[in-house]
Specification:
Blueprint (H helix, E strand, L loop, with lengths): L1 H42 L55 E5 L3 E6 L5 E10 L5 H9 L11 E3 L9 E9 L14 E2 L3 E3 L6 E9 L4 E10 L4 E10 L5 E11 L19 E6 L3 E5 L1 H6 L3 E5 L2 E5 L3 E6 L5 E9 L3 E7 L3 E3 L3 E13 L2 H7 L13 H18 L2 H15 L1 H27 L4 H15 L8 H19 L23 H16 L6 H18 L4 H27 L2
Parallel strand pairs: 1-7
Antiparallel strand pairs: 1-2, 2-3, 3-4, 5-11, 6-8, 8-9, 9-10, 10-20, 11-18, 11-19, 12-13, 12-15, 14-17, 15-16, 16-20, 17-18
């Protein structure tokens, strides 16, 4: 009885083995559907903005200052004693503060003289959309107008109320010290325009604030050629007749802007948009807008940084690494959120001067560049839970790109490397699948003979597998291997800014968007169909019919995937076909 029980359990396992590959393929199809939905949410047609664009200046918005560590109270903004410390919107008739425009080779910046806040910042090397000259030429050949594209540079900091994102910093006086400049105080500037000249490597933009008590603050923005960093120094000159003590704060204020929201299917797969801090103890931490709503952050750390990140780009305040900094968040009125840092108190003796310094990074999330700016800043490139796979893939892509100078060829090179790394496993899998295909006719004979006796059929099938040394689970390995690699490559392609607008060859001029002529997805579908023909079909006729539809279904999904991801799949399928064809012929020749 015991032997019969064991045999029965083995028969049950064998019965289920035939369905595992089918289940894995279905699961993979669901993952493709979710990734496709996520990609559509990011790159599909966008609904019209619910709120009209406004030209209201950031100077018309008052924001709370960070609470001081020693009192826990909100200091009153200087020069605004009649105002509440809560955020208020001034009337539209208020006079906006003057603007200082600054332009380097990579940045176009607008600095408001109300507080010296950076209210607009454009990345000159990153247009919103890239023109595909090949596609436009093809459209003209068939009598169609060229596709209209938005060639304006990507705007990171933005003063429009519905997309508000600004960088603020200032000074907080300690108890007993005179009020000094914060991000509400009115500064003055000698010039209203600064442009980095040819051959000039550093551009300095000074603005000043003074009061009637002998305090003077000079805020200097230092920009370098080819750099997305802005060094901000605040020099406090104290001639007030008494000592002054205070702290520097630097913060980012943002209104969340979601063009596509409410998609539960892809909510966990979208690129993260929200707050981030990096501390000495906890390292990289996401502080989402929901977290800011629930409670205010108050964390101390030596060094570190505070940031708001988005798809492809990041903005971070980086205080001096050698000092103890406090990081904070808060939710303001009208769905506005603040994340920032402030310094320890510094004493400025009478008739002396002290400088506070902080760095602001606002630019593309290029990992090698960010690694040099601040520890952990490269972690803002988020590859989800598959970071342990995504990081090596990115490293390998970057290395190959350094030789080919083409991200498309880098993808092809990575595909070869992955196939080579997985060769022993895929070799064993393809051998198992070839043997399965070889015994398929005999399995059908057994099914016809013992179709009404499931237990006898399972017994005979197990005996056949044992005799021919066939592992029915062996063919599942290629699918199991490809799922995490495929998802990791999806995240690498969608999160790595280097792929944005990266050309490959011929009509593929942007690897981060869909193939404009749909050639690669069609080729992918053909290779998938060929590869399917090399695999043993399921014994269950219903499963077999469903699987026959998969090449067409996957082709439809891949029509909307980025060309880089489809390129990987085409090369991977082609290599698999070559390898599997060789193994199948070898197994058949041994018969």
């Amino acid at each position: 009885m015991k032997a019969a029980s064991i045999l029965s359990r083995k028969n049950l396992v064998i019965t289920r083995m035939d369905n595992i590959r089918f289940v894995l393929i279905i699961a993979f199809a669901m993952i493709v559907l979710m990734l496709w939905s996520a990609w559509q949410a990011d790159y599909g047609p966008k609904p019209a903005a619910a709120q009209a664009e406004s030209t209201e200046s950031v100077a018309n918005v008052k924001e709370d200052l960070p609470a001081t560590a020693n009192t826990g109270e909100q200091p009153q903004p200087s020069g605004s004693g009649e105002q509440s410390s809560a955020a208020v919107i001034q009337s539209s008739s208020s006079v906006a503060a003057p603007i200082v425009t600054v332009k380097t080779d990579v940045l176009a910046v607008e600095i408001s003289l109300e507080g010296g806040s950076i209210q607009n910042l454009d990345l000159l090397a990153y247009p919103v959309e890239k023109e595909n000259t090949v596609v436009n030429a093809a459209r003209k050949m068939v009598g169609l107008a060229a596709a209209e594209k938005n060639h304006q540079p990507v705007r990171i900091f933005n003063s429009k109320p519905d997309r508000m994102f600004i960088a603020q910093n200032g000074l907080i006086p300690d108890s007993g010290s005179s009020a000094v400049s914060d991000h509400h105080s009115r500064f003055t500037a000698a010039n209203n325009q600064y442009v980095m000249a040819d051959g000039q490597d550093i551009l300095s933009v000074p603005i000043t604030w003074t009061d009637n008590n002998g305090l003077k603050v000079t805020k200097i923005f230092l920009l370098k050629r080819g750099s997305y960093e802005v060094t901000v120094t605040q020099s406090v000159n104290n001639n007030s007749g008494k000592d002054w003590s205070g702290r520097q704060y630097s913060q980012l204020l943002k209104t969340p802007f979601n063009e596509n929201s409410g998609n539960m299917l892809t909510a966990g797969m979208r690129a993260y948009d929200g707050g981030v801090i990096y501390t000495e103890k906890e390292k990289y931490q996401k502080i989402g807008f929901d977290d800011m709503s629930e409670e205010n952050l108050d964390v101390a750390s030596k060094g570190g940084w505070a940031a708001m990140i988005q798809h492809y780009f990041a903005s971070a305040w980086i205080p001096p690494a050698e000092q103890e900094n406090r990081f904070y968040t808060k939710k303001l009125q009208d769905e506005r959120y603040v994340i920032g840092t402030y310094s320890p108190p510094v004493k400025v003796a009478n008739n002396s001067e002290v400088k506070f310094e902080s760095r602001l990074f606002s630019g593309p999330k290029i990992q090698p560049m960010m690694e040099k700016i601040a520890p952990g800043l490269e972690l803002t490139v988020d590859y989800s839970v598959l970071t342990f796979i995504g990081k090596p893939i990115y490293w390998l892509l970057n290395k190959i790109h350094s030789f080919t100078n083409n991200w498309g060829f880098a993808i092809i090179g990575v595909t070869f490397c992955i196939k080579l790394l997985m060769f022993p496993l895929t070799q064993a899998s393809f051998i198992s699948m070839a043997k399965m295909r070889k015994v398929q006719p005999r399995l059908k004979e057994l099914q016809e003979r013992f179709g009404d006796d499931r237990q006898r059929f399972n017994t005979e099938m197990m005996a056949l597998y044992k005799k021919e040394k066939v592992n029915p689970l062996g063919g599942c390995l290629p699918i199991l291997i490809q799922i995490p690699v495929f998802m990791s490559l999806y995240w690498v392609l969608s999160e790595t800014v280097e792929f944005r607008h990266a050309p490959f060859m011929l009509w593929i001029q942007d690897l981060s968007v869909m193939d404009p002529f749909l050639v690669l997805p069609v080729i992918m579908g053909i290779t998938m169909k060929i590869q399917q023909g090399l695999n043993p079909p399921p014994i269950d006729p219903i499963q077999a019919k469903i699987l026959k539809m998969f090449p067409l279904v996957f082709t439809v999904f891949f029509l909307f995937f980025p060309a880089g991801l489809v390129l990987y799949w085409v090369v991977n399928n082609t290599l698999s076909i070559i390898q599997q064809t060789y193994i199948t012929k070898k197994i058949n020749a041994q018969a």
